[in-house]
């Protein structure tokens, strides 16, 4: 058989065809490529056909192949192939659940396992049983009213502009970013016949349109913005819960909330004026908060000083009154003993000594007289004056 192969390999016709193929491959490059390719295919086809034709000894290469495998048991080969196919079919029921995922197993379409944990698992091969693995840890992100979805850029329906009316009939354009998770795989897989991203979009659109009509445009763009975001999240979640979708919204964020372009400048001016007003109010509040406590402190200090002075005056007056009362008591006692005139005169002298400490005081009994002369220039006067008898 080896001799026959070597004879076939060295056949002049076979060698001639090979040479012709090589010549065709190196043909004039100016000849069209398509024509040369057709010629090469035609030559190769002829070589293959001649290789399977019977040679001089009446045998073909196909007969050689049959002879090479004739010593093998065909039934053994078939059984081995069947066993291999059965083994592959049985092993097709092996599946893996990654961390953060939940597996759901169905048998002929009926759910038989709803919470398959992470790890390597087995279920009966298809079509008896099938598994679906859902990622419940992944935080999915969807955009509403944005020119192109970042999560699903190839959605056929395409994102639409989110434009709503406020409570005071002004138009507002919204761009909302929604983050959500799958918290119930069974409900997510079997309760909704609708793309999850589209269901989230529509629920958020409905919530924004309904809630924006309750507030004025100025509040939506400024003070009520955060509260509106929270209300939109709660409202959209209630819509999803109504469908028993198994979807939980984590957050809704207004990436943009702005008026239409034609009136955007006017709204910006109003917003700027409002910010200036708020700044002035804050500055005034700050000034008041710094001045009022200082004034209150000074008032407390003045009031404390006044109270101290008043108390000192009261104490002084009380001391003077106490001293006067003591003198009065002594006066009344002495008046009874020495007479009222003597007591008055003694008190008068004591007071004069205090008022005029450097003046000499002379006490003259009433029965005596003293000649007091006051020299004043050229004339002399006496005191007390002389009286004509």
Model description:
It is a single chain. The chain has 389 residues and is of the alpha+beta class. Among the domains are: 67 residues, no CATH class; 44 residues, no CATH class; 120 residues, Tetrahydropterin Synthase, Chain A. Helix content is 53%, strand content 19%. The protein has 11 helices and 11 strands. Strands 6, 7, 8 and 9 form a 4-stranded antiparallel sheet that branches. Strands 3-2-5 form a 3-stranded antiparallel sheet, with no helix packed on it. α2 packs antiparallel against α3, α7 packs across α9 and α10 crosses α11. The protein starts with a helix and ends in a 6-residue tail after the last strand. The N terminus is likely disordered.
Task: Give the SSE map.
Elements: H1 2-9, H2 12-25, H3 33-51, H4 61-68, H5 74-91, E1 94-97, E2 101-107, E3 110-116, E4 119-122, E5 129-135, E6 140-144, E7 162-165, E8 171-182, H6 185-190, H7 196-212, H8 217-221, H9 225-242, E9 247-258, H10 261-338, H11 340-355, E10 372-376, E11 379-383
Helix pairs in contact: 2-3, 7-9, 10-11
């Amino acid at each position: 058989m080896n001799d026959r192969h070597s004879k076939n390999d060295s056949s002049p016709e076979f060698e001639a065809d090979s040479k012709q193929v090589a010549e065709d491959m190196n043909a004039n490059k100016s000849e069209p490529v398509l024509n040369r390719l057709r010629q090469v295919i035609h030559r190769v086809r002829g070589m293959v056909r001649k290789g399977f034709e019977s040679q001089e000894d009446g045998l073909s290469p196909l007969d050689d192949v049959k002879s090479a495998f004739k010593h093998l048991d065909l039934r053994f080969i078939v059984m081995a192939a069947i066993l291999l196919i059965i083994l592959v079919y049985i092993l097709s029921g092996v599946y893996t659940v990654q961390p953060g995922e939940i597996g759901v197993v169905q048998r002929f379409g009926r759910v038989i396992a709803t919470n398959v944990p992470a790890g390597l698992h087995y279920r009966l091969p298809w079509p008896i049983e099938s598994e679906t693995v859902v990622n419940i840890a992944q935080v999915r992100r969807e955009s509403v009213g944005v020119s192109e979805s970042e999560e699903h850029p190839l959605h056929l329906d395409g994102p639409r502009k989110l434009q709503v009316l406020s409570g005071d009939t002004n138009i507002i354009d919204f761009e909302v970013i929604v983050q959500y998770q799958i918290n119930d795989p069974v409900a997510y897989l079997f309760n909704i016949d609708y793309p999850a991203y589209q269901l989230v979009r529509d629920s958020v659109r409905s919530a924004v349109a309904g809630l924006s009509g309750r507030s004025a445009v100025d509040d939506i763009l400024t003070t009520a913005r955060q509260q509106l975001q929270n209300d939109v999240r709660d409202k959209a979640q209630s819509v999803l819960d109504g469908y028993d979708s198994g979807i939980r919204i984590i957050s809704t964020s207004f990436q943009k909330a702005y008026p239409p372009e034609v009136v955007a400048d006017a709204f910006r001016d109003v917003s700027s004026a409002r910010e200036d007003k708020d700044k002035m109010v804050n500055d005034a509040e700050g000034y008041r908060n710094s001045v009022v406590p200082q004034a209150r402190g000074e008032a407390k200090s003045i009031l404390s000083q006044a109270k101290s002075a008043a108390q000192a005056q009261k104490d002084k007056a009380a001391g003077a009154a106490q001293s006067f009362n003591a003198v009065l008591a002594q006066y009344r006692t002495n008046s009874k003993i020495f007479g009222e005139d003597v007591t008055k005169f003694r008190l008068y002298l004591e007071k004069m000594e205090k008022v005029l400490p450097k003046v000499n005081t002379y006490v003259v009994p009433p029965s005596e007289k003293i000649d007091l002369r006051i020299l004043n220039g050229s004339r002399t006067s006496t005191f007390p004056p002389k009286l004509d008898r």
